[in-house]
Amino acid sequence: MDEKDLKEKTAGDNICEANLLSEEELASLPALYRRLLTAAREVALEGDDRRLRGIVADGASRGLFARDRFGLSALTRAMEGTITFCNRVSPDRNIIVAMLLYPLCDGEFLTPERIEKEWGEDIARMVRGLIKVASLYSRGRIPESENFRRLLMAFADDIRVIIIMIVDRLVLMKAINHHPNERLVRDIAVEANYLYASLAHRLGLYAIKSELEDMSLKYTDRETYTNIARQLNERKNSRDAYIAQFIEPVRRKLLEAGLNFDIKGRTKSIYSIWNKIKKQKNDIDHIYDLFAIRIILDTPPEKEKSDCWMAYSLVTDMYQPNPSRMKDWISVPKSNGYESLHITVAGPGGKWVEVQIRTRRMDLVAEKGLAAHWRYKGIKSEGGLDAWMNNVRDILEAAESGPMELMRNFRMDIYDKEVFVFTPKGDLFRLPAGATLLDFAFNIHTKLGSQCVGGRVNGKNEKLTYRLHSGDTVEIQTSANQSPKPDWINIVVTSKARTKIRQTLKEIENKSAELGREMLMRRLKNRKLEFEEAAVSRLVKKMGYKNMTDFFNAIAEEKLDVGVVLEKYIAGETAPHESHAERISAGEFNLQAMAQKETDAPETSSDVLVIGNDIKGINYKFAKCCNPIYGDDVFGFISAEGVIKIHRQDCPNARNIRERYPYRMITTRWSGKSGSQMWATLRVVGQDDIGIVTNITSIINKEKNVSLRNIAIDSNDGLFQGHLTVGIQDNESLNALIKKIKTVKGVKDVSRTR
């Protein structure tokens, strides 16, 4: 390609204006594009260069690559990002195309639909993921809201979106070094540390993780960063001399053994050194593992382990090892795929030196993570990827105390060290350090954890609180009478166990509350009284309970006498007694005397109900047992207080009313047009899937003249059941809403309850 082509195309329409490309940026584009072509050459398809160059140049000429809030050009940032991705992770054609096209989707020039048509569904899916993430950022800082959870959920849709965002954040961090808005830079640096460095660590992108952490420290505590960097620089000559002195005899031994290898020294990152200084409460001169020696073996796959252990033997024969610092990540790799042997030995002068031994393949994974050998085609067959995705979902479900708790769990699960334990059959399980026998039980299966009463560890009986150690063989003991207890939350450390315990406790609580509700309803029915939610709600508050669940639990557990509750309910509602009511027919009732004063009816300009023989202006209330709305088939029921209660014809109490009080029923029909909103409750059943509730509420929010008043969700055995109370004008609108909710993926049934 002619290196001036891109510059000429982008300069064609005088785009050197505020917010667009500067002359300096235009001049740098050809060189930047050549670097991109070089980095992507091995994965590009025929015609990609021409097609991408054309659409990027067209977008730039229209001024669509506007500047972000840091003043950076979206075009140069996207190109720098793709180059960084190719060099630091692994070239992939679809990811490169998605990264270049995404900035052009901020408008009508390029849409995901057009991308799908011209470039394929896989690239369009990544672009949609990036748009979704960008929409969350547009609402404000992520850590200050529930957007943090939504952000992780957006990431979890496609692992490649995570990698793109990590790389983009690395490019951004490098670009804002001297940005004048220090507060903005600090906010970005903090987020880069707790979120993007954490994600990079989880994916095994250690080099990127270290850079993000170093730059984060630089932008949040420049004095500390500069001080450590200066001390490292001052000691560089002596450090290099010591590394050479340590390496030389090791090199000779490895050559004599016939091994092919590279060997080099590596200084710890500034952020890592700073953490060591804080943890050990010491200065840089007393950090014993300030640098590490890395031995990288060129060896065939079948000899990887044996050659690594041979190198280990040669090094430990020469230098005294510290057994407590031995780490074998070859026999059992880390969850992110990391494999290496780590040993700490006493080098010349008695200084402790860390030695890392790995093969060329292991080093590639260590530098570029699992991403180094994923296929990036949307295929989720890799065990490491599946484990990662499941872990993210566990964390998302675990934090019920808001974004800050979620962030704490997210980092805790990433950086915790690991223990490896076995079942009696020899199956190996990986858990975070500090995990208990109860964590292990829940890790195997929820039912096993829920019924766990203890276990045998290495042939010895242990309690639920036993802290596991690597190499333990664990057999779980259960009892059918066992169930989770509230204090179990304080025993476990894994987010999975914590989530399952809370879910089970909630299910037990709900079952108990349902029993208490049935006890009260049965007593009310015996007294020929209706169960009204509003009346019970007032009674719950009057008796000092936080919510109905606690109230009904107290009844079920006999902490509250249901008889006492019944009397208080009757006293509070002044329920009518049939023996004191005058037996009159509906036709004899003085309708005109029931002029409307205070009513629960909708506030409209004219009555929407005609009661009796075309008589309006009647005092009426909508029955709480069935909540009729405009358009429902209804009837009136004259209560002893002189108020007509409006019921649906299919009300659960309708049959009893018709059989016992036919003389108190009165014909009722709707009149005029629907007025203000009335309340209806929907029962929704579907698959217990992240995001399904969001999709349902999104549909409701988009409906005109429909509002969501309340939502309650319960889940069990992969299914969820939700009750949604919505404000709506008539049953025609309600039926239309039900049809739309039924179209949501994963929804199995939608029905109106009352």
Summarize the structure.
With 754 residues, this protein is α+β, with helices and mostly antiparallel strands. The chain contains 27 helices and 20 strands.
Describe this structure in words.
With 754 residues, the protein is of the alpha+beta class. Helix content is 47%, strand content 15%. The protein is built from 27 helices and 20 strands. Strands 1, 2, 3, 4, 5 and 6 form a six-stranded mixed sheet that branches. The protein has a five-stranded mixed sheet with strand order 12-16-14-15-13. A four-stranded antiparallel sheet has the order 18-19-17-20, covered by helices on one side. A hairpin with a 5-residue loop joins strand 7 (418-422) and strand 8. Helix 5 crosses helix 7. The longest helix has 32 residues, at 495-526. The N and C termini lie far apart (69 Å). The model is unreliable at 1-19, 143-147, 373-385, 398-408, 410-415 and 574-606 (pLDDT under 50).
Give descriptors for this structure:
single chain; alpha+beta; 6-stranded mixed beta sheet; 5-stranded mixed beta sheet; 27 helices; 20 strands; about 45% helix
Coarse shape = globular
Average pLDDT for all residues: 78
Beta-strand fraction estimate: 15-25%
State the total count of DSSP E strands. Answer: 20
Task: Name the structural class.
Answer: alpha+beta
Radius of gyration: 34 Å
Are there runs of 5+ residues with pLDDT below 50, and where? 1-19, 143-147, 373-385, 398-408, 410-415, 574-606
Secondary-structure blueprint of this entry?
Elements: H1 5-10, H2 23-40, H3 48-61, H4 74-88, H5 93-101, H6 112-119, H7 121-137, H8 147-156, H9 159-175, H10 182-202, H11 206-220, H12 222-234, H13 236-256, E1 261-267, H14 270-280, E2 291-297, H15 304-318, E3 320-321, E4 327-328, E5 341-346, E6 352-359, H16 360-368, H17 383-398, H18 403-415, E7 418-422, E8 428-432, H19 437-444, H20 446-450, E9 452-457, E10 460-462, E11 474-478, H21 495-526, H22 533-542, H23 548-556, H24 562-573, E12 609-611, E13 620-622, E14 634-638, E15 644-648, H25 654-660, E16 665-670, E17 678-687, H26 692-702, E18 707-716, E19 719-728, H27 731-742, E20 747-752
Parallel strand pairs: 2-6, 13-15
Antiparallel strand pairs: 1-2, 3-5, 4-5, 5-6, 7-8, 9-10, 9-11, 12-16, 14-15, 14-16, 17-19, 17-20, 18-19
Helix pairs in contact: 2-4, 4-5, 4-9, 5-7, 6-7, 7-8, 8-17, 9-10, 9-11, 10-11, 10-18, 11-12, 12-14, 13-15, 17-18, 17-21, 21-23, 21-24
